Amino acid sequence: MEQTSRRNIDTSTIMVRIIGYGFIGLFALCCLFPFILIVSSSFSSEKAIMESGFALWPKEFSTFAYEIVFKNPRLVIGSYFVTLAITIVGTAVGLFIIAMTGYALQRQDFLYRNKISFYIYFTTLFSGGLVPFYLLMTKYLHLQDNYLAVLLPGLLSPFLIIMMKAFTKSIPHEITESAKMDGAGDFTIFLKIILPMSTPALATIGLFIALGYWNEWYNSMLFLSPNMEYRPLQLFLYNVVTSADFIRNSAAASNVPAQDIPLETMKMATAVVATGPVILFYPFVQKYFISGITIGAVKG
Amino acid sequence: MKTEAVTVQSPTVVVKTKTKESVFKRLWKHRTLLLMCMPAIIFFAIFAYLPMPGLYLAFVNYDYSLGIFDSAFVGFDNFKFLVMTGDLWKLTFNTIAYNLAFIVLGNILQIAVAIMLNELTNKWFKKVSQTIMFLPHFISAVLVGLLAYNILSYDYGVLNSFLKMVGLDPVQTYSNPEIWPYIIVITFLWQSTGYGSIVYFAAIMGLDKSILEAAEIDGANAFQRIRYIIIPWLKPTFIILLLFSLGGVLKGNFGLFYNLVGANNTMLYPTTDIIETYVFRTLMTNFNFSLGSAVSLYQSVFGLVIVLTANWIIRKVSPENSLF
């Protein structure tokens, strides 16, 4: 088969392939380009950037920006710790609740499944908007300057509950039925039978939650004030990117004179430090994200 | 007669008590599953339903010390203000225009990428390029803003380095509102195309390969196979995704706009201000909570109408895909 099809290749197929390789190759390069730019700039000397701008290859190699970032690593490490803690706790708790809800809502013998599903789904159709949410969080729940303001709102999302429902639907109902015959309760069935059987689904949904927490900056920006010492990583990066004063302050302990602090390269170095680990980790878990969007799209 | 009356009456009594009992009985029977849903029910009650009555803010002149429900009632004054200043129209236009550009161009590019990926034969190339194309989807909005700055910065950006190299004048990107629609749309496509193409790629994978082989035997060339088999095969997926995204046409991507444009770049507002960024400003810089809520209420109500319409159309086109 392989041989015949290879012999039968006509010019149109060759042309389509050339276009395909060219188009995909070019698009992939465009996707990669800004990342190379940022890494290269972070390893460049500030002087070279002042003179000739950001470039794909450092004109003058320097690790000065990283040295300053790590000379006083307290802030960066503190940020890492805050983000890591929020991500781990939030993912564990969120995943458990989503799995539990998703399983209950796809049980055909659960009388209230449609009502509760709609109750959850409706929140994507209509919302109170930012201002009432902000007042609720600050004035009524008093979560200003509290990491819970970042942790709590990210726990669940209707989208992930629907995805979990779609995943657990593929587990045959007979398994629940036979376990019930043996006298197991619903929660025991979920904990002892369903959870161990849905590891791929849990991996996918867990990664979606974790990615959300890792990249979270919106609630951090809304509810954590600038004078908080240890802020989530993306808020830290946001402050570095948007405020030269913030860079100077955070580099103050490094004993580098204020005028010598490399403002531009430090932005890039901080971005690399804040994002690098995720990007290195991501190719290994890519397949879970793919299965997530495929099942999400099938179900709508 | 008497006996008849009794026989009629007694069943109703029985039925009545039965339903009354069975509500609790039913609740009791499903108690474990109900309890399992309870954390989610409480979560959405607090973070989604509790803020909803807060939209009453749109009809008052909010006074922080008095609270939402004791502030002075002003009726539709906030909405009148938004209409009179032209803000409401401008925000609606910007939000919808951007979303339409995202949806139309996004889907076209995603389909193109999926079709091209399918034609590639080198497994290694396919895998590596796919991984790279997904990459922009996984980074934070803050980083997207910084990546754009690397390219667009007046003094150090790659764009101006390039323009100077070929002998053209550098452009003042961050003070030139006309070019921002292009910048924002391109950034959106850069970030979402690779990941979005997965759905179409999976759909092509679901196509029976023997159909393509039969077409090849019948003399269809590669272009004809794409044009007459693959593209028609993707049409239902396209229509459903299109309708779904049309439902969200009034919802903006705050992170993208805010981080690209910057927090206080008033010069760019005419072409970059969307509902989300406007509401954010009313809250964080102008402290006009009522005005922000009026825009949010408008967005939620109008958005709901659009979703219901989109769903109504989906039900006509393909009932199994409808939301409800």
UniProtKB/TrEMBL annotation, chain A:
Protein's UniProt name: Putative aldouronate transport system permease protein
GO terms for cellular component: plasma membrane
Keyword terms, alphabetized: Cell membrane, Membrane, Transmembrane, Transmembrane helix, Transport
Transmembrane segments: 21-43, 80-104, 116-135, 147-168, 189-214, 268-285
Pfam families in UniProt: BPD_transp_1
CDD domains: TM_PBP2
Membrane topology: Multi-pass membrane protein
Subcellular location: Cell membrane
Stated family: Belongs to the binding-protein-dependent transport system permease family.
Species of the source: Mesobacillus foraminis
From TrEMBL, chain B:
GO process terms (BP): transmembrane transport
Start and end residues of each ABC transmembrane type-1 domain: 92-310
Species in which this protein is naturally found: Mesobacillus foraminis
Membrane-topology descriptor: Multi-pass membrane protein
Principal place of residence: membrane
Cellular compartment(s): Cell membrane
Protein name: Putative aldouronate transport system permease protein
GO cellular component: plasma membrane
Family: Belongs to the binding-protein-dependent transport system permease family.
Pfam families reported in the protein's UniProt record: BPD_transp_1
Transmembrane regions listed in the UniProt entry: 33-52, 96-117, 138-159, 179-207, 228-250, 289-314
Stored PROSITE patterns: ABC_TM1 (PS50928)
Keywords: Cell membrane, Membrane, Transmembrane, Transmembrane helix, Transport
